[in-house]
Amino acid sequence: MVFREWLSPQRRFTLKKVAPSVVLDYARKASSCLLLVFVFFTSCTQDFEEINTNPNSPVAVQPSLLLRQVVYDYGEQMSYEGFTAGNLLGQYTTALDFNLFDRHNLKSPQLGGNPWPILYTNLRDNEIMLNLALENETFAVYEGPSRIMKAYMAAALTDIFGDVPYFEAFRGSNATVTPIYDSQESIYMDEDGILDNLDKGIAAIQNYSGTIALEGDILFNGDLDGWSRFANSLKIKYLIRISDKMDVSQTLQNVVSDGNFISESNQNATFDFTDGEPNNFRLARLRIGDFNNFVLSETMDDILTELNDPRIATLFRPFGNSMSGDFNGLLNGIDASQTSIALADYSLAGTIFRENTGALDANFMTSWETHFLLAEAAEKGLISGDAQELYELGVSQAFAYWNVSLPENYLNAEGAYAAPGTSALQQIITQKWIANMINGYEGWIEYRRTGFPQLQTISASLNDDLIPVRMPYPAEEAALNNVNYSKAAEATEGNSINVRVWWDD
Known about the structure:
Layout: E1 2-7, E2 12-17, H1 20-36, H2 48-51, H3 63-89, E3 93-95, H4 116-135, H5 143-161, E4 164-165, E5 181-182, H6 184-189, H7 194-207, H8 224-241, H9 249-258, E6 269-272, H10 288-291, E7 294-296, H11 298-306, H12 312-315, E8 361-365, H13 367-379, H14 387-401, H15 424-435, H16 440-450, H17 475-480, H18 482-491
Antiparallel strand pairs: 1-2, 3-7, 4-5, 6-8
């Protein structure tokens, strides 16, 4: 016999097989309630909770499940976003077709280019985890990681878009559904902002005295010290990012002097993709035609060729028509409707992004990036330290990250810290840009901040030959949060992609 069990809060029902005696028992209970409903209504609900409880639907989510979900979903989706859209903005790759985005019509996402819902969905789930940690002492171990992840994702959000809904956002039913847009400066600097959450996250880890282990941690396998190092490397990164707006030297020096940041490759904040589904890199699951849409850009080709850099053979493949294993890049932003391109004339992305994704990581923060940041800080006099030594360590770790042997003379020739015809800062940022191919948005963000490496004017620009300096707010914001969106759009000259963010102003 089939019985419909009502789930009253959602006004839904499920079908379950139960014994006839159970149905009769439910019927008797229902009948007694109907007979007495007008006189003894409240007394007839004594079994109501039991009847309306779905044993297969938990009333609360465990923070361990949320931590695993947030880290994996963000890492998986933003790695794909970084490759398909960020790599076009950073000119690592070129799109052969479906390429309005590559021509800088950023309001037309194609195969990627819409990070807004990814960021807000994961910030919302992370906020649930943080609230569970703050409200229940049993879950206190999750406060540090959830604050650190909040800072990390909030920085990505505001560095890509500029002013965004933040302090009133991603809180579900506990806040407004039409949050105001907060300034990037306040998101970085105010209480509960990026830097504050990193400090509070570190403090929560240091002050945790419980015995409950951190579960669901696919970044550090429950190692809270790993989370502290991650937070301090992020702190270095964000302090340098805002260093043109304020003096950060003393705070930076304090972090460096403490030495508790990611300094070795085995401390990296990454998780591994697999060769097969369901945890392989998403490009491996695309149709071959979609994957073949992305080829080596002329910008990337020129830089790697000038450096005589062997990583080109890992990041890309020789072009099909080559008789000697050569590589060939294409200028970004072609007009596919007017230009005929033969795929075999250009280098496709390497097998690591499709056939061999088990060798690929979702990259949150690494030792090589930390050392490039410290090299920049030392070069600018923000910290004490040997900038060249830090740079060379970053280069060697970046090569190892991509499983490529560092050529013996690389650091004494084209890749040298003081190579002729270039500046030390240009060398630092260019090397960081190359290694960040899996994090294409990062390469574009660092170009906006430093001007390095020098990106090329694209072939058929839809943005007056200007390199965009922010992503536009998505169209649904105008429909769902119009009043606040309108103010933000006005502040960015009509949601223009050419209006610089606060730290780039």
